[in-house]
Design a protein that fits this description.
This protein has 18 helices and two strands. The chain has helices at about 10-15, 15-25, 25-40, 45-55, 60-70, 80-100, 115, 120-140, 145-165, 175-200, 205-230, 235, 245, 250-260, 265-275, 280-295, 295-315, 320-335, and strands at about 105, 110. α5 (about 60-70) packs across α10 (about 175-200). The longest helix has 28 residues, at about 205-230.
């Protein structure tokens, strides 16, 4: 896949999210109020564990999509605020569950909830946040948005199971990998953008355009995350560099490096990924093989391709500050790799 370079100047990249936040500041503050209110419970462990992740300083990209999409489409009510909070709860619940499945120890630069409180509380509080998300959806009195986010939640769960089945399996193809990414990551981006348009009462074509934007953006975002695991910094990634490698995750950089490598290279990958027999220097060797085969650079090129498709999807929609901010957001997602 080939795509033109990002249109955002390097000096403007880091400010793209800040500019989007500034556009929807009042809405985002309202979302944060809803989140803080709805994660409360008479069971003390629930708000303590939920706050550990919810208030850990994430960029809130998914609820920002809902808010920006709603305002782009001229929303004047407050349903999009509850929907954005619902989207963040779904996302947080999936992170809690992910960290348990992956036995992760670091999330957004902090110890994971499962490391601090254990696996069982993390799973149960994740379930609580899912329930809160659906309560918020119901309060919007829209069967359509309920259907969109409920379907997305089911697809995300399917993606998690698909990823588990593909874990440590070097026979995983690029097509299967993209199916996992579309389900596990991009489905929530897609739904988050789409419900913003639905909440604003826009025609189905506009809602679908934003859904396509979200889907393509989500794929680009995950591809960059996969590349960053072998080429980034913990500060920008929010987890330990090489986590995917140590966990034996078969991501696109691994798939391409394995397919293009010599038999000696493939033996290394089978030992490190399938057998999980890793030693000192193996991560460095993996990175060197990816650089030699071009798998990292191709992963980044593919991410840029999907980011361009995301921007193209916005073309039928109104041209305003919100649509421009969404274009910049697509550039930001892929420019995290420098």
């Amino acid at each position: 896949m080939r795509a033109p370079a990002a249109t955002l100047a390097p000096d403007d990249i880091d400010g793209a999210v800040d500019r989007l936040i500034a556009l929807v500041r009042d809405d985002l503050e309202a979302v944060n109020d809803v989140i803080r209110d709805r994660m409360q419970s008479p069971v003390p462990l629930i708000p303590a564990l939920a706050a550990h992740l919810v208030e850990a300083g994430g960029k809130r990209l998914r609820p920002l999509l809902t808010l920006a999409a709603a305002r782009l489409c001229g929303s004047t009510g407050d349903a999009h605020v509850k929907l954005a909070a619902s989207v963040e709860f779904i996302h947080t619940a999936t992170l809690l569950h992910d960290d348990v499945v992956d036995q992760s120890s670091l999330r957004r630069g902090r110890p994971t909830a499962n490391l601090v409180w254990g696996n069982q509380p993390s799973v149960l509080v994740g379930d609580f946040l899912f329930s809160r998300a659906f309560q918020l959806m119901v309060e919007t009195n829209s069967v359509e948005v309920l259907g969109i986010l409920a379907s997305a939640s089911a697809v995300i769960a399917e993606g998690e199971v698909m990823q588990l089945a593909a874990s440590n399996n070097l026979q995983t193809t690029q097509a299967i990998y993209l199916q996992v990414v579309a389900a596990k990551t991009a489905a929530l981006f897609e739904a988050a953008a789409k419900v913003g348009a639905v909440a604003a009462g826009r025609p189905a074509a506009d809602a679908q355009a934003l859904a396509t934007y979200g889907l393509k953006l989500g794929i680009a975002f995950q591809l960059v995350d996969d590349a960053l695991d072998y080429s980034g910094r913990e500060a920008s990634l929010g987890k330990t560099i090489g986590d995917d490698f140590r966990e034996g995750k078969v991501t696109l950089p691994v798939i391409l490096a394995y397919a293009r490598g010599s038999e000696e290279d493939r033996h290394f990958w089978r030992r490190a990924i399938e057998d999980r027999k890793q030693g000192d220097g193996d991560l460095s060797r993996a990175i060197a093989l990816m650089e030699r085969t071009g798998s990292l650079s191709e992963t980044i090129r593919d991410a840029r391709f999907y980011a361009e498709e995301a921007k193209d999807a916005l073309s039928p929609l109104p041209k305003n500050a919100y649509s421009r901010a969404l274009v910049d957001l697509a550039d930001f997602c892929v420019a995290r790799v420098r």
